[in-house]
Design a protein that fits this description.
The protein has one domain: TIM Barrel (Alpha-Beta Barrel). 33% of the residues lie in helices and 13% in strands. The chain contains eleven helices and nine strands. The strands form two sheets. A seven-stranded parallel β-sheet has the order 1-4-5-6-7-8-9. Helix 9 links the parallel strand 7 and strand 8. Helix 1 packs across helix 3, helix 3 runs parallel beside helix 5 and helix 6 packs antiparallel against helix 7. The longest helix has 20 residues. The protein starts with 19 loop residues before the first helix and ends with a helix.
Length: 363
């Protein structure tokens, strides 16, 4: 990996703890010598990733009104094997719309506040030697379409909401940078609902989504990348996590190969008006050589690549097999899990981190 990115292992983001210090202590010790940056685990209210937004932001916003809510207004992990309606018939999960004539601004999306609080703990633990010197603090942020589309049922509202969200996130990054030095920060955009939607092809992901072809979806989601590098200082690392979702179990939808990840990586490199430092691509448990073949088309310059080759429920031999197949197309890469671990049982995390370290030793 490049000296700027550092480390050969990354944690995608979420970990199933209520306390950032516990997560940082465990990760810092387990991944010593391997991690170039560490997240705070997206603990507490962020455990359900974008689920934080309807619960704490959208539902309390004076310009928005709720039109559909889950039972108890609480998001519950669905049963993967449960029989349900086809995706395109689902009316939504937790839906909102803009009130007529309302002006929408998001002055507090919480990400900056959480980052500052966790960074203080991170810095103290690094000073104590629990976290290696030189390791940066990683701030993970949902991409605009992931934050907005799934919970706003009128697509005509989306452009207004994207603009407000992008402005709000720039404010959150600025808030974080008031305390976190730019050269000690990593900003990672998490892009998930977009990939789930693209993976279902010409189908609609929810009943209220517009009817678009797979090609139209790709162009729409790639277009949002034009704005996501802005307001991030050059000294700060910038990365993308391409995600197929864990809601109900990973992956939410079929992942035939790395073609979507490669194509979106190429778009990110082309559309980013500053250096793109890394991309992360998930990998299925039992890939064929053909799964990795699209890596031959990767055109991202010296941007580092982390492959999600770590599956903590199988053996190191199986990791080696995935590693060797990937090396046929990409000689140099770092490793990670396929996604965050926010909905994994906390008592599994010591093992998860140990597997990351063991696999890193095999690089």
């Amino acid at each position: 990996m490049s000296d700027r990115v550092g480390g050969d292992v990354m944690l995608v983001g979420s970990m199933p703890y209520d306390d950032a210090e516990l997560m940082l202590r465990k990760a810092g010790r387990a991944l010593t010598g391997h991690a170039g940056f560490l997240p705070d685990g997206e603990v507490g209210e962020r455990k359900n990733w974008v689920g934080m937004l309807p619960e704490y932001i959208w539902s309390k916003h004076p310009a928005l009104e709720e039109t559909l809510a889950p039972p108890g207004r609480t998001l519950v992990q669905p049963d993967r094997d449960a029989q349900g309606p086809p995706l395109e018939e689902i009316p939504g999960i937790w839906n909102f719309r803009i009130k007529p004539g309302a002006d929408v601004r998001f002055d507090d999306l919480r990400y900056g506040t959480h980052a500052v609080q966790s960074y203080r703990t991170f810095r103290r633990l690094r000073d104590e030697g629990v976290i290696d010197k030189g390791v940066r603090f990683q701030l993970c942020i949902p991409a605009p379409c992931s934050a907005i589309d799934w919970s706003f049922e009128n697509p005509d509202d989306w452009p207004t909401l994207y603009a407000a969200y992008n402005d709000g996130i720039r404010g959150e990054i600025a808030k974080a940078l008031r305390e976190i030095p730019a050269d000690d920060l990593v900003v990672q955009w998490d892009v998930a609902w977009e990939f789930v939607d693209m993976a279902v092809g010409d189908k609609r992901l929810f009943a209220f989504f517009p009817q678009l072809s797979a090609a139209q979806k790709f162009e729409r989601y790639a277009a949002q990348l034009d704005d996501l590098w802005q307001a991030i200082p050059d000294e700060t690392l910038l990365g993308f996590h391409w995600c197929y979702g864990t809601w109900g179990g990973w992956p939410m939808v079929a992942m035939e190969d790395l073609s979507l990840c490669v194509r979106m990586s190429n778009e990110a490199a082309r559309r980013t008006g500053r250096r793109l430092d890394y991309v992360h691509m998930p990998v299925v448990r039992r890939p064929s050589a053909e799964f990795f073949a699209p890596l031959a088309d990767l055109d991202i310059g010296d941007t580092a690549v982390f492959l999600g080759l770590v599956h903590h429920t199988d053996s190191v031999d199986e990791f080696r097999h995935r590693r060797d197949l990937a090396r046929q197309q990409l000689p140099k890469f770092g490793i990670a899990g396929v996604c965050g671990y926010g909905r994994v049982a906390p008592n599994e995390l010591d093992h998860v981190l140990d597997v990351h370290a063991t696999c890193a030793a095999e690089l």
